[in-house]
Amino acid sequence: MDRSWWLKVVMILGIAVAAIYTLIPTFYYFKLPADVRNDPAELQKVLPRWAPSAKHKLNLGLDLQGGIHLVMQVDVETALRRKSQTRAEQVKATLKSKNFADATAVANPDKLQVQVTLANAADEKRADGILSDYYRDMHIVSVDGPKMTLAFNDQDIAKSKTDAVDQAVKTIRNRVDQFGVAEPEIAKRGNDSITIELPGLKDPERVKDLIGTTAQLEFKIVDDDNPAGQNLFEDLKPPEGVTLCSRENHCPGAENVPYLSGPDRNALLALTAGKAPTDDVIALEKREVMGQPTTYRTYVLKAKTEATGENLIDAHATTDPTNGRPYVSFEWNPAGAKQFEVLTENNIHHRMAIVLDNSVMSAPVIQSKISANGQITLGSGGAYQQLMQEAQDLALVLKSGALPAPVTIGEERTVGASMGEEMVGRGWKSCMLGILLVMLFMAVYYKVTGLVADLALLLNALLVLVVMALFNATLSLPGIAGFVLTLGIAVDANVLINERIREETRAGRTPRGAVDQGYGRAFWTIFDAHVTSLIAGLVLMQYGTGPVRGFATTLVIGILASLFTSIVVTRVCVDYLLKNVFSKKISV
Q: Is beta strand 259-262 parallel, antiparallel or unpaired with respect to 295-302?
């Protein structure tokens, strides 16, 4: 045998050995119990010291190992209403900066409009020029004396809806990534929905809560100085279980504004509906004290949101060394730090409520100017582990970013781990049965060259699994189907080659000539067929989601591996047989 043949043999053997070595973490991964299989630390414990890192391995999809499938509905209309309210504040600030001191801007969220009222109707033309220049996504729909009505352009409304869903997808993906879920599938579906598949979760209920939390972090000033708030519940007769706390009955925290306290959150919301003073809102704080029932209390807050969590760059749970209580520490980016510094400097000795999703987390008194860093102190009640878990969850939500609009669970489907294990077994059994039948057919019909094709088929299967492991691909039931299909494609290439060799042998060619002509004439047919299948697979990978993408991934990898094994590997084996076995007659 010549030198080039030996080089090919060494290359093939090296690839095979490297492939087997790379699949060692995957082998141990499948040996672990299902409940600890997705823990990288557990896998690293059982791996031999000489084995490769557990970082690269095959992962099982939702249908094979259990998990949760969610379809989240994004409330894009709420995102638009919030945008119109924010825009009203921006318009007012812009006009004020351009010497329209008495101008007002009020949002009409339902119509996505902003109504501007000028002090003088003669200023309308100048204001029109300024607003048209600053806010090109809006247009003036009507002018009535000093009043102007602005509305968002249709194309900008459509873009805002799309952006809201896209941002929600990104935010949810960030949150899921914090859990270390192996190959989650998060994709936009339709105009306002998001499909989420999270395989291998141990606590899906907790993850659903975190994903669905809108995480609208706001900082509002407690309106203790509003005279209207002092008589807020003057005529109220609290029902049983609800306590009216005021300075008359010496309740802590009720020195200026009375508040309601009770165990029933919904009852408090009903009692306070419509009672907030002008430019104020009423929010609830959940209070948990160890050994006592959970209660809620009301706060009267200024309606204006002084700062939001959009400028947060980090948040983490930690423990106060002085009292051992967990809390959440957070950090602002430069823009957020500047805004927070102004806020705290202007409200020293006032209470500032930290509001998450319309619930007051805490309302500390601002003692001094704060800029880059802050913290959220959790309730004093509850066990340490419970409070630390709550702090970690809150930090996770804050750090992952805020959703642009509320999301709700539109569809939920769970796959149990036992069902997943059963599907794994059935999938691999069907896969092995298919491979054995194909190999048996090739060996019986094509004899020795059929056995060569079987050897190439096994190497092809090995290479597909290795490449998937290197890319941490997820193996699902459709993926197994794609795996079996690629083996069929690989066998089809060898069928073409063997049939060509048979034709050349019948035409009277020598074994060497028949092999050379068989491989030469079959090559372009095989190549064209593989390229067309490859194009289809790439399109499915690009535009497909979930099971479709899993099928396409294994298909593309298998097609590329098939080109190597069916043409290079089998040719090396056949050349050896021609030299040592088939010098006079080839068995095909």
A: antiparallel
